[in-house]
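Changelog-adjacent note: as of this version, every example in the card shows the full chain rather than a window. The one below runs 150 residues end to end.
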Amino acid sequence: MSNELIHGMAASAAQCALNLILERPMLDANVFLAAIIAMLINLDRFGGMSTFKINGSNNVEKRSPIGHSIGFAMIWIYVGYVILRSMDTYLGMTYDHATFVAIILAYTTHLALDHLDGGIYHLPRTMDVPSWFKPTIPGRNIYWPAWTGR
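Full-length structure tokens:
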């Protein structure tokens, strides 16, 4: 499983490359913002759930769909946009659109790395929102059964 340092380095390298493509300075605040956000996504991991079996194997599942799914990625990116707009409107702190792109890039690189080393969750199977937050259903040996993908 990729650790926080790898996620931060991948996001900052991707942001540096994007800055060069967009003819901006290679190192700017967005490089560090993308790295920090890519590392913070791992806050949804659970360390003590190694006793559950997934599909009959003893694999340890530590990721939850709250941070490691395409569905919640769209929600978190929108929340980031709302925060940036609120800071601009109410606090007078201006930002350029490259800051919003850094948020998108952080999530994209994080999910891409996690997809390569164990899988991510895609979208919920049902629109029953309370079921999204239940890691297991008694009697079933599948983690986060309300979510598709792996």
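Structural remarks: Helices lie at 4-21, 29-40, 70-90, 97-116.
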